Amino acid sequence: MTEAEALENEQHKSSNGDVPPEATREDVFDHTYKEKEGPKPPVVIVWRNVILMSLLHISALYGIFLIPSASSLTLLWSTLCFFISALGITAGAHRLWSHRSYKASLPLRVFLGIANTMAFQNDIYEWARDHRVHHKYSETDADPHNAVRGFFFAHIGWLLVRKHPDVIEKGRKLELNDLLSDKVVMFQRKYYKPSVLLMCFFIPTIVPWYMWGESLLVSYFVPALLRYTLVLNATWLVNSAAHMWGNKPYDKNINPRENKFVTFSAIGEGFHNYHHTFPYDYATSEFGCKLNLTTCFIDFMCFLGLAKDCKRVSHELVLARVQRTGDGSHRSG
Question: What sequence ranges are listed for the domain Fatty acid desaturase (predicted)?
């Protein structure tokens, strides 16, 4: 056994990274899963979703043409709504509720729950469940957005068709008591639809119109529809582009890559080879706040006393993994 392998064994080596005893193991890749042989089930298109997504993107395109007529305050408000929505996914549904990579106080969980509702990407419970399935069965039929099926499917196509039966079956078998016992998660799930209308569409539209006299047309198409569409696509790029293009400094045997464009657009979620190698690390990167606004936000919440117990991978363990399974492209710092 090499020195690197010995170090990993000492620090709770797993088949998909290194997970400490207190971390959830529902996001660790399951090598025992085997795809069923024989013909694949037919692809069933959900035409309602196709129509709605098409209309949304057409509306977002119209919103782009309205940007020159928007006031500077409206553009600033749109940017603020973008970051709040994105944090509801990255710091909330992803790093907090899917991976339990840090602990958040009740006020912070409430804020992240509201922010997640503004993002409108399914409620926290469903988002976290599907994301854990994605990690546990990555790039297989049980992966909700299996990147092996191509960029379009991984990006948006998975939302336009019925889920593969394996996704539903494996999702039902996950241990999700941590989500079920979280009152913020369950409250949001219970009142999700009216909350989405309020947080994703009504408030982003009304604030510019009421507070500084922006036209309702611009208020609706820029801070609401365009902002919402941009957040959606930034999140989807993590599933698509970050699983197809980039280097693999930590584990060359898996699909996820390090993708700088996704890192920028998804406020820190593009260090994806690292994240799938060490899924419990709250920073999703070995570089801390560098190019990672979500990590900066969590660190600031820790400074305010609203977050704590951030799980981290030691530098020695990262280097051990790089030496054992990396593709040779690793650069520290």
Answer: 77-280
